[in-house]
Amino acid sequence: MPLPRASVEDTGRPLPVLEEPVPSAPLVLEHRVLKALLGAWALAACSAEETAAVEDHLGVCGACADEALRLRGAVGLLQRPESLDLDPGLRTRVLDGCLDRRPPRIPMPEWATPYDAETARLDALLQDFGDSEWHAPVRLRWFDADEATSRRTTVAGVIAHLLSVDGLVAVALGLDDPMGEVPADAPTPAGRTEAYWRASHFPPTRSVRTPWREQSHDLVRTVSFTGGTSGKLEVAYGDFVLPLHDAMLDRAFECWVHAEDIAEAVDYPYEPPSPRHLNRMIDLAARVLPAVLAERRQKGLASPTHGRHLVSAGGPGRTLRLEIEGLGGGEWLIPLDSPAAVGSAEHEVAHVALDGVEFCRLAAGHVPPAEAAAGQLGDREAIRDVLFAAASLSRM
Predict the structure, then answer these.
(1) What is the model's pTM?
(2) Best CA proximity match to 117, nearest among 247, 344, 272
(3) Are strands 147-154 and 137-144 parallel, antiparallel or unpaired?
(4) Is the pLDDT of residue 202 over 80?
(5) Are the CB atoms for 227 and 110 separated by under 8 Å?
(6) Any idea what DSSP says for residue 342?
(7) CA triplet 137, 138, 139: central angle to 5 degrees?
(8) CATH hierarchy code of domain 105-265
């Protein structure tokens, strides 16, 4: 191994004299040449000397400066801006690819995957928020007795709302309730939310993100450890009950809707769920619509069922065909006269066509029923009843 080379500074000999670099003379180019170089300059394709010459010229020639500005703008249009948002289906595709190679030791039930995906997407949106974003104003919107209703809160307040209502699922699974002691007058999602807001630091701060995300992980982990057999457990929402597999789908839908509310508040784009998950959300709404129609009819909010329309349990009755186009598309036959009836193409009296995302926003109370961009054919009264029933699915 050669010995280290001695430094010239250690030899006692004089150091070499460094010559100062001679600066190169600036390029002197004619106006027509400089004008011809503007396109290359806009594309950053000029040499350093040419760039310096062009930029010196732009400081004294207004016509060339205007042309250079126009060319730079044109170059910007040639470059497609890439969204920072990932495809909402990417997570599902990556997980499916991984699980095809190595199945999980404890698989997640298929009916829990929309909730897992939507909570992960919302958490990714929240991760870079500063204090100002967490306190950005958000208006929650829904329909109550066919009237548009809203409640003002903040981004942190929305996460507190999700935390408190997801707690209904946690209680059904035997997990801790984030509310602690729940007031007797707060069994509904709205009541729980108002109680949580009153009991916590108000307005809520970014600290609410951690318990919300931990609870979402606990819910997915718990239903996975049960092997999916817990899907038939009932989750009480105060004035109605859902089986656990539908409640998890309902919470996925709510998470997406409020993630859009948050993204709108901070002026950030947010994509709908993957088509497969969106289809399941639409299916849940379609399955619930007959019961909602019957409840609205009892309250006098929907057209009455005449004697000739009465049907036996399990028999066919008047039917509306709900056709969903685009993402999550499909067709559903909605029985109009009784939740116990069966939708039948032979008894179809009306047909409604809606975009999938538009239908979900209608069901979330974000689109008034009278303004839903729907293709309509047949019994106008039945169509109105179904559109207003869809809007009444919304809640705080």
Answers:
(1) 0.73
(2) 272
(3) antiparallel
(4) no
(5) no
(6) B
(7) 125
(8) 1.20.120
